[in-house]
Amino acid sequence: MYNSIQFLETLLDELKKGKFPNSHVTPTTLSRIIAAAYNRYDMPGKSVEILKECTKAEPGNKRLHNDYDYFKTRAASISKLENVTAFDKAEAEDNMTRDYENLCRGSLKSPKELSRLFCYYKATDDPFYFVKTELANLQPRIFLFHDIISDDEIGFLRNISEKQLSRSTTMTKQGMIGSEDRISHTAWLSDLDFLELKKLTLRIKLITGLETAFKTRYSNTEQYQILNYGVGGMYKPHVDPLSERSMFPAECRGSGDRIATIMFYLSHVMYGGATVFPNIKTRIPVQKGSAAFWYNLELNGDIDQRMLHAGCPVLVGSKWVSNKWIRERGQMFKRPCGLKKKSKERRL
Ligand SMILES: O=C(O)CCC(=O)C(=O)O
Ligand SMILES: [Fe+2]
């Protein structure tokens, strides 16, 4: 629902800028629709905010003024509640930031929680290939696969990407821009250009059990994203799915969203640089040759906010990682959706 309001608000912005000169929908009509949507979700304060400007511009519009008065009365009656909600949100944000910062300094799991985590050799479809697997978190599962990329492969990835590195960007409403939220350099490498990458992608398929073929269209995965963080480099808390940041994710067309992330660690870091998940108090220190793997989407396709994560600032050293994002396309039999809307993963 919140996404649809965001959608309408963007449309309103565009309409006000005169982007649709032939539209029969006026900004006031659209503002009334948005105001009604906010009101429906018990946020009449927002409805008042939206309509205020219109009422000044159209003093004679009776329906508009009726709506405005109604929302004002309602906002006055539940404003306390709204304030509490806003307050709760701010507090949750503060708690998340505190956990993020503390996790960057060290583990926040209790000895009891840590004692439940374990390691095992994970069997794959190849009867001779067992993967050293560590559970970094139980529910939701975060896996750490050890020794799954060799030093030679790491050298290869770093060498070819070094020439292509450029300032990392993040996706915003304004497009892809460099931002304070992400200080690093990025390169993209295609499976189609290097046999070594094709082989690595097949390994991901074996290890994760997901479809991983890379194609230019209707692909199961994205290209390899190589990241290099210098001292002070970091990536603030975020979730990986594209639909979180972009309202019209053309990138999701055909291949779906980023159902899972596998992130290879291509270097050691002396201090700092851990990958942390503040909502589930999980911390993964950088370990060359290992890879972290987790699902970003729930079984019903919703973004799993528990998987919010960050790359902690590098204090000493240089950190290299590589992401390979696995898309929803082709995974319907590999990771079937649940029978109920709220079905949770039972076993992985
Ligand atoms: O560098 C890290 O540890 C996290 C990187 C990350 O989350 C990303 O690139 O999406
Ligand atoms: Fe990420």
From TrEMBL:
This enzyme's EC code(s): 1.14.11.2
Listed transmembrane segments: none
Keyword Cell division among UniProt keywords: no
Superkingdom classification of source: Eukaryota
Keywords: Dioxygenase, Iron, Metal-binding, Oxidoreductase, Vitamin C
Enzyme superclass (EC): oxidoreductase
Protein name as annotated: Prolyl 4-hydroxylase
